């Protein structure tokens, strides 16, 4: 038996025993009360019948009728049978009542009877009492006054034991006790079965948790339960699903990192190889004059490319560090955008690409790092120029709604495939036909700068007719 089964079974058993004992004691108390109350009422009714008869006797003259006197005397002699218990009819002096010469009433009183009869005479009311005899029997007393001329003349005392009622009471209690024991046994067995059934889904969840801990993220609980356990099982299955997704993402990220290292190695090896071979040719005197100058220009271009690659890597590393501060001050975001456009116009002119942008004679003020935001727009424009064919245009627009400024940079290049859109901001990702261009760090830098300024970046493309980068900049004030 499992520990939790034992605990649940123990709890159920304790509750069942508690309720059984409570029911037994409650029944015992109520049944006992009503049994003894019923006996007291019955004795009172018998005493009332005898009193009424005695009051009729007292209203007539003892010697008025010989037949009536004999009948009354017989009544008094058989008063015990009439009361169906020990009956005592006593006068104020404590003596048994006698009716003429025909008979005396009841039994000879004991000291206990005399003591009980005393308040009947003094108070003139019906008295009842319940006492325990030396042998442990319950003794019931009922005393009722008999009036003559408005005064208490006699007292009718009936004394009876509760033996017959006690036997019925004990029989009922015994039957109840047997029934409760049977109920406890059956309920205990059922509680054991229910406890095992209750912990079954818990065991399944525990087994699934163990499988997840061992790295098996395909494990499922297979628990169908409408209670909180079912909810826990669903959460466990959801956890397994997310862990599997995380594992796949981790594997994918690891592969991307490997690809990135491979790409960076290639990006570094190619210019280093060119620089080295060019230097060897110049140093060995293989090339001289104008040819040597051309080699030097080529080496300079490769050095610039290397510098740019290293700078991008260092820049991304700094931006991803949350402890790296950015300088926030009140600035005009439109000015940063216009400055970025001026910076890339030379690159665009080399491909005969026109950047269409009309600045407004207003200011769009926000709190931010001017240099970082300018860098973000330059990276976006550089991407648009890099992947746009020659003799095309790039359209830059902006509009403000409430306090949010929307800036759009749209090119007419080959676009981005739908399956690549979800990954383009990943720092090690380069998509489709663009894999041979750049290091794949530009959009990652854009994303990190935007996040540091609470800017939302969105890329839209149908994969055929160009790409649009949207910047949603909050908390902008138009002046």
Structural class: alpha+beta
Name the poorly predicted regions: none
End-to-end distance, in Å? 77 Å
Strand order across the largest sheet: 8-10-11-13-12
Query: What share of residues are in beta strands?
Result: 15-25%
- C-alpha-based Rg, rounded: 55 Å
**Secondary structure: helix percent:** 55-70%
The SSE string, one letter per element, is HHHEEEHEEEHHHEHEEHEEHHEEE
Number of E-state strands: 14
Mean pLDDT over the full residue set: 79
Count helical runs. Answer: 11
Shape: rod-shaped
State the major sheet: 5 strands, mixed
Topology:
Blueprint: H1 3-58, H2 66-77, H3 79-83, E1 86-91, E2 98-99, E3 103-104, H4 111-123, E4 127-132, E5 138-148, E6 151-161, H5 163-213, H6 228-283, H7 290-319, E7 329-332, H8 333-350, E8 354-356, E9 364-368, H9 370-386, E10 393-401, E11 404-410, H10 418-421, H11 442-452, E12 456-461, E13 467-473, E14 477-478
Parallel strand pairs: 8-10
Antiparallel strand pairs: 1-6, 2-3, 4-5, 5-6, 7-9, 9-14, 10-11, 11-13, 12-13
Would you kindly provide a written description of the structure presented here, covering whatever features stand out?
The structure is a single chain. A 5-stranded mixed beta sheet has the order 8-10-11-13-12. It has a 4-stranded antiparallel beta sheet with strand order 1-6-5-4, sandwiched between helices. A 3-stranded antiparallel beta sheet has the order 7-9-14. It is of the alpha+beta class and 479 residues long. The model has no long low-confidence stretch (mean pLDDT 79). A hairpin with a 2-residue loop joins strand 5 and strand 6 (151-161). It is rod-shaped, with a radius of gyration of 55 Å. The protein has 11 helices and 14 strands. The longest helix has 56 residues, at 3-58.
